[in-house]
Write a structure and sequence with these properties.
disordered N terminus, about 25% helix, 3 helices, about 110 residues, two-stranded antiparallel ribbon
Length: about 110
């Protein structure tokens, strides 16, 4: 009998998978930019951006595509999250990045 405490539940299209049976993590977290236009009270990003020497950095699309190609070799379902030190929607190619993830398997979603 399956031990419920050994299962990871992925609330995405009804997919569930045991950690032991997976060859790949259930979620990939990508930090695609370090720039943010918000001033959230709990976030240190405004102070970071205000430091001398701060440079806006975006993950390049070619590097992103190569990463997605490498991740696409696995058949396990995977959720891709765009988060990190910046606001992902400010990346100049975020639409292309989300589109690429949506076209590739085994990805089941992106946010």
């Amino acid at each position: 009998m399956d031990n419920p405490s050994s299962r990871v539940w992925i609330p995405l299209e009804g997919i569930t998978a045991s950690l032991e049976s997976r060859r790949f993590p259930p979620m990939i977290i990508l930090d695609v930019t370090n720039v943010c236009n918000l001033q959230c009270i709990h976030c240190p990003q405004p102070a970071i951006q205000g430091r001398a020497g701060f440079e806006i950095t975006h993950l390049g699309y070619v590097a992103f595509r190569e990463l997605v190609d490498q991740l696409g070799d696995c058949s396990d379902p995977c959720l891709v999250r765009f988060v990190g030190d910046g606001e992902p929607m400010l990346h100049p190619q975020i639409g292309d990045m989300i589109g690429l993830v949506k076209r590739r398997r085994p990805f089941r979603g992106a946010f």
